What does this fold into?
Amino acid sequence: MPDNTTTKNTTKFYGRRKGKKLHATRQTAYDEVLPTIRIDLPEKNTSLNPSSLFNTDVKEIWMEIGFGDGGNLAHMAQNNPDIGMIGCEPFINGVATLCRDISAHNITNIRVYPDDARQLMSFLPTASLARIYLLNSDPWPKTRHHKRRFIQKDTLDEIHRLLQPEGLLRMSTDHPGLAAWEMEKTWAHPGFTWIANHADDWRKRPAEMVETRYQKKQMAGMAPVFMTFQRNG
It folds into this structure.
């Protein structure tokens, strides 16, 4: 597939793109599987219908932004075969791990954009996604780096545009500062409503998700919190 990098989004990306050298199994999966599931951006000033990416009819499209090693994305895809899953992840090692799992379990309802999610999001039609997941994103803890955090006014505007009415934005983090940031920014956005009714709604992982390797480690020393916002209207 051609690597069409034409994009309407010019926001600079700050995260890692590659880690240690891939082991043979992951490298093979990356080379063989990714070309069959990779999403290429369309030409400038056009849009991409996400349903057209899948070989069979899907009733909804869910997107995970920054899927890490893909454990949660693969879990949700296997348990929801009638849902089209889009995963965005610029970290090659994580993409390779997901490709390995897709091959091992013959998962057919995942498509991957192996780069900054914001590039792809700008090409998707309004109200084309039923759910968006942002799990354990980089907290960028230094104050001068807070502008690098994914949740900002402009990205919330774009998430609101992409979600269907009453669509869900699910976020998780084990970083107290990022938890406060994501809650404050999303709560203040007029397009979203926090749908928690009691403490378990933010303490317990949503039923369709799996505990990721990162969450098991609790890297920031705090149990993860889960925030679910619903698109108004």
